[in-house]
């Protein structure tokens, strides 16, 4: 099996032989296949790709590097299944048998380390080129964001990109029975997901809201004890304090009963696990004991609220 450096040492073929111009074989790097979810997890795998490419720079063949990855000698992930998925992603994105010059370019760029700007830039370029959905997202969505440092991307940006490629793009009178059935199924699924998303958003803002919360907080002093975590600035108005205490911010110390109550209340669970009266009581209990703990801190009975990390007080 040839290594990166061995391939580079191969004698170049003369431009002309016997008066003939050799055929030029086009090599396509960019993915032109159907949209895929292959890039929806694992990210760019910068560190992992750096280790793989560094090993190849040292003269190891692709087969040897793959073996080292799978047996855990090169990557530190505990699960072999996870290491296999990572290898598949790296191989698909960055290692091309038909373009050894590209593998060589990666190896050269990695000489200064896996976080070198040249190496990371080349990884991200290939990350986009080797997946059609990612490429279209970058060129059709991100490119319209005026090169913002942290562009704001909404769910609708992605949906708008996907819509033209769906069954909706086929005229109604040109759809087969199978396509029409699939369209109905997808429409139902989209409506269900949209409803789920709306309820999830409602829970994130109002999950721990109770009927008596506003009254409970009406006379609460707006001081440092009202900070959400001891680091952030405390609310400066009662309305802000109510919004903060209404938001779904689960705490492992509150217990499963309290943390699961807002989800069940919004119908986000596959099946109810708490009685209705326990749902309302769990949410009300949380509001009461948080108010009590803030009061005890002010009275010097506690060093800090229990939901702050130790030492933040």
Describe, in plain words, how this protein is organized in 3D.
- With 313 residues, the protein is mainly alpha-helical.
- The chain folds into 3 domains: 29-130; 167-199; 207-298, no CATH class.
- 50% of the residues lie in helices and 0% in strands.
- It is built from 13 helices and no strands.
- The protein has helices at 4-8, 46-57, 62-70, 80-94, 100-109, 117-129, 132-140, 155-162, 177-206, 213-217, 238-246, 256-265, 276-298.
- Helix 5 (100-109) packs antiparallel against helix 6.
- It is extended and about 70 Å long.
- It starts with a helix and ends in a 15-residue tail after the last helix.
- Residues 4-18 have low confidence and may be disordered.
Topology, pairings included?
Elements: H1 4-8, H2 46-57, H3 62-70, H4 80-94, H5 100-109, H6 117-129, H7 132-140, H8 155-162, H9 177-206, H10 213-217, H11 238-246, H12 256-265, H13 276-298
Helix pairs in contact: 2-5, 5-6, 12-13
Short description:
The chain is 50% helix and 0% strand. It has 313 residues and is mostly helical. It has 3 domains: 29-130; 167-199; 207-298, no CATH class.
Determine Rg (CA atoms, Å): 28 Å
Q: Give the helices and strands as they follow along the chain.
A: HHHHHHHHHHHHH
**Helical residues, percent:** 40-55%
Describe the main β-sheet briefly: none
Q: How many distinct folded domains? A: 3
Summarize this structure as a short list of keywords or feature phrases.
3 domains, 313 residues, mainly alpha, extended
């Amino acid at each position: 099996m040839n290594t990166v450096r061995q391939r580079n040492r191969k004698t170049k073929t003369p431009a002309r032989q016997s008066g003939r111009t050799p055929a030029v074989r086009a090599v396509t790097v960019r993915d032109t296949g159907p949209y895929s979810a292959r890039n929806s997890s694992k990210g760019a795998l910068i560190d992992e790709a750096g280790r793989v490419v560094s090993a190849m720079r040292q003269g190891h063949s692709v087969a040897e590097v793959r073996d080292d990855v799978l047996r855990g000698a090169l990557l530190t992930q505990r699960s072999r299944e996870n290491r296999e998925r990572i290898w598949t992603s790296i191989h698909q994105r960055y290692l091309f048998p038909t373009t050894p010059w590209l593998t060589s370019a990666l190896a050269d760029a990695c000489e200064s380390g896996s976080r070198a700007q040249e190496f990371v830039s080349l990884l991200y370029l290939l990350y986009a080129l080797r997946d059609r959905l990612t490429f279209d997202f970058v060129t059709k969505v991100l490119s319209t964001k005026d090169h913002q440092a942290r562009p704001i991307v909404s769910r609708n940006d992605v949906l708008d990109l996907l819509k033209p490629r769906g069954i909706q793009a086929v005229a109604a009178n040109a759809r087969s029975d199978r396509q029409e059935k699939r369209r109905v199924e997808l429409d139902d699924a989209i409506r269900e997901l949209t409803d789920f998303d709306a309820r999830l958003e409602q829970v994130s803002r109002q999950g721990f809201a109770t009927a008596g919360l506003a009254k409970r907080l009406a006379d609460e002093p707006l001081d440092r004890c009202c900070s959400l975590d001891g680091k952030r600035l405390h609310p400066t108005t009662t309305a802000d304090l109510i919004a903060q205490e209404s938001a779904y911010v689960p705490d492992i110390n509150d217990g499963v009963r309290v943390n699961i109550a807002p989800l069940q209340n919004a119908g986000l669970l596959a099946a109810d696990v708490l009685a209705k009266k326990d749902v309302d009581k769990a949410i009300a209990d949380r509001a009461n004991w948080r108010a009590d703990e803030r009061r005890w801190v002010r009275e010097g009975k506690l060093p800090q609220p229990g939901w702050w990390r130790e030492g933040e007080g």
